[in-house]
Every structure is written in structure tokens, then in C-alpha cells.
Input
Amino acid sequence: MQCDNCKKAEATVHLTQIVDGKVLKIDLCEACAKESGVQDAAGFSLADLLVGLGAGDEIKTEGPGARCPACGLTQADFKKTGRLGCATCWETFAAGLAPLLKAMHKGDHHIGKVPTRAAHTLIISENIRQLSEELEKAVHTEKYEEAAVLRDKIRELETKLEVASATQKTA
Amino acid sequence: MRPMRLEQLLKSTNEWVQAEGPQNRIVLSSRVRMARNLRQFAFPGWAKKAERQRALELMRPIVEGLPEMADCFSELMDNIAAIDKQSLVERHLISREHAVKNVGSGVVVSASGVISVMINEEDHLRMQAIHAGFQVKEAFNLIDRVDTELEKLLEYAFSPRLGYLTACPTNVGTGMRASAMVHLPGMVLSDQINQIIQAVNKLGLAVRGLYGEGTEALGNMFQVSNQTTLGEREADIIERLNKVVLQIIEHEESARLTLLEKKPKLIYDHVGRAYGILTNAHTVASKEALNLLSLLRLGVDLELLPAATRAVVDELFMLAQPAHVQKFAARKLITEERDILRADLIRGRLAVMPKPKIGRVPPQTRGNDPIE
Output
């Protein structure tokens, strides 16, 4: 068996951790295990380790040249540090991050606290998304009158959203 | 605003060390931290120096202006000496990672030491509340309030699907890490600790040694915290941690009782030796000191030593750590000098402590009432 980190040496350290009934496994060679400090059973969590080692491999969907348009972080950078560069990175690398998040967390979406400032714009965006779906359906089924009404509603909400985010920025 | 000086902050005993928190026989402190980032700036680890600086300049006055931060200590990391950074780490006010930061990072700590906000650590904001004893919910409520105040003034990086966006995928979602610092000598002495660690891991919580590196958990101190941050409400995470800590308390109490019943001599020996060494030693390394202090603390809990001395022992846990000893000497010390000074410090503080009252303890005793 090959080492998950260097992909060269024979893996001799096999780690398994069960978190919430999910089995996380990683196989390392002696040198990589030592370097990552995993022989200390109390002081590591496999989730942290997975970020450092396997993370870059997981992000395949965007291709190796994928680069965040906002901050310039590349997949290679992420693989090196296990850290993202900015808020936009979460969108840029979304497809690749999804399986990683699934492996390390309880669920795949946030159900906790929402900042009140964001809540207002979030509700509008969610409405727009729903109406857009309806619009698409209406066009498909050739209900053009309904589609026109929906389109106007969406435009109205989009203006609202622009105003809301503009006041947020200046606030 | 009268800003607090670092010397004052480090001289005072922080509330979480001093206060008599609930369940403090086993739970020393409870802590909740939130990771937050700003939408319009690259995360601190990736941002260029100038951008990091701008983010710091935007955040620092806003954090200082919080009502909870009246008379706070606020400083740039490049203005804090290495030894003082280490002291802040030993007091759990900043992380080890933050201690190595310089230009472009800062820290703001409330006068009581209960709330501390690291600016430009791995995330733009890492804010925590720490309380004495078992008060995870109280710590959560406090830091949640601080977060709500900050969100009115700062535009957070937030996604409706993924929640609060963080630099590391392990923190995304709630960005929350809730933890309790627990003292588990009973389970360590009865070789049950690994079982407990595994059982707690299965419940999605991590158990780590608080001091020391590698497998050794110095001073029998452990930190229990949530592992995951996505897909669960904050209140549910707190509730789960609470339940698990309550079970740990129960197990630890029963391990101690069993030891007293089945192996009283082992306990008397450990506590007696710890007392003998710490009250007579003239040189002691921090590792040894933490382990012996743990046994004294156990002695207090088992009423072999007076209850009033628990606070003395708890304070020594902090003072015996390297940076605090060094600070005490007010000059740079080599290891040997530090060990001598540490021993002097401990002997001095323990001078008032009577010898352990061995053999006068009925095995069933577990309440807080002192035995006369």
C-alpha cells in the first residue's frame, strides 16, 4: 500500500477514526506520519489531516489550473496549506470542496445562526431563486403570460436586492 | 477610554482562574470561540501585507468600541514581546498560532480577561469567551452577543448554504468551537482514559491533552470540544457537549470513588508524595510540576487537603508554566534557573497548606461539604 501523502514510500501507519459513525481512513509511510505528528493519538484529528493531505486531490472538478478570480489562490496553493484564500474561493472550488465537507462534517449545509444584516438580502435572493425556477417551468410549458408576470416580479426583487446590498456596504 | 496595560492584564488573575465556577472539582473552565471573516478582504493567511493591514485597521476600532470592551487591553502583535505573547497563550487568551504573528495582527482582551478577540489569526476574527467551571452555555451566550454586535458593523463572509465562511474547511458553518477543560486524574490513574477518549470521539467530540505535546497529557488536563461545525445548530452542539461533559464528570467521580475504596494506599501515596516533593523541592521542571499539582488538586477534591487551597493550586497551574515563571523573574532565564525559581514559587505558595489528612476520609464521600 502506498503512502497517501508522498505517494512514494510504503504505508506502514494506518489510521482510522470514527466520527459520527463515519469512518475516516488514511495510510501513511513512517516519515510522513512522523512529520504530521499523527503518532500522537490524543493530539490530532483526522479531519485536520485530511485537509492537509488529501484535500487537493479531492478538488478535481475544476481542473488543476483552477484559480480563484477574486484572490488568485490556486488548487496547488490550497493543497499546500489546506486553507482557502477568500470568501469567493468557496464558490470557485465549491464542487471539489463538497465531498471533503461531507467527509468531515455532520451535514452538507448550514442550519445555524444567520447574521441579521445578511438575512434580509438572503430572503430576497432565495425568493429570486424560487421565482426563477417557476419562470423556467412557465417558459417550458409555454405559459407566457405567467412567465411575463414572474419576470417582472424578479426584476423588482433584483432592484430591491441591489439597494439592500448597496446600503449594507455603506453602512 | 482608559486603555489597560499588558502588565496589568498579566498581573491580575483572570476571572476564569480565580472564580469558583460550578462543577469546578472537575471542570476548570469553559470556552466558546467563533471564527468570522470579512467579505471584502482576502483571508489573513493569503492576503498581502497591505490588505491585511487595511482589514486590521477597519476591525480593531470596532472591536475596541464594543460595550464589553470598556477598559480593554488592545495591542498590535508586533508591539508585544515574545515572552508576553507566551504568557497570553498560557492564559488561554491567544492561540499558539497567533503568538507567532507580527505586523498586521492584533489582540483585544476585555479587562476581566473573559472575552478576547484575535484579529487576523487564521481568520479575520477569532473571538472567545472563557468562564470558570462548567459554564459552556453562559460562554456561548456571551460570545454570541458579541458576535451579533459586531455583525451590525462589519460585513461578514457568509453563504446561505455553507454559513460563515472560514479559511479552513474544518471550521465552516457555525465557525464555532466550544470546549471544556477537564481534570481527569481518576480516569488516568485507573487506566480508563483511552476508553473514554474513544467513546467521546464516536460522539463527534474531540479530547485532547491540554498541556504538553504528543501523547502525554500533562497534569491530567484534557480539553473536550466539538469536531464538526457544519450541519448542526449552535445550540445543539452546545447541548451535546454539555451532555458529554456531564457524563465525563460522572465517570471521573466514580473512578475516584472506586480508587479510594479499592486502592486507598495508591491515592494516599500519590497525594502524599506530590505534597512532599512540591513543599520541599528546590528545582522542578514544568512537566513534573503540572503532574504533581494535578495530584494535589485530586487531594483537595478528595478532602485530604482543605478546600480553600484549590484556588492556590489552580493559580499555580498557570504560574508554573515557562513564560509565567520567566515573567516573575523579570529577566531571561536558562532552563535550570527557571526550574529553581519555579520550585521557590511553588514552595512559597504552598507554605500555608497543611499536610494531607490521610485515612480520615470515608470512602463514600463525594459532596462538597468539608469533613471535620
Observations:
- The longest strand of chain A covers residues 13-19.
- Chain A touches chain B through 51 residues (CB under 8 Å).
- Residues 54-61 of chain A have pLDDT under 50 and may be disordered.
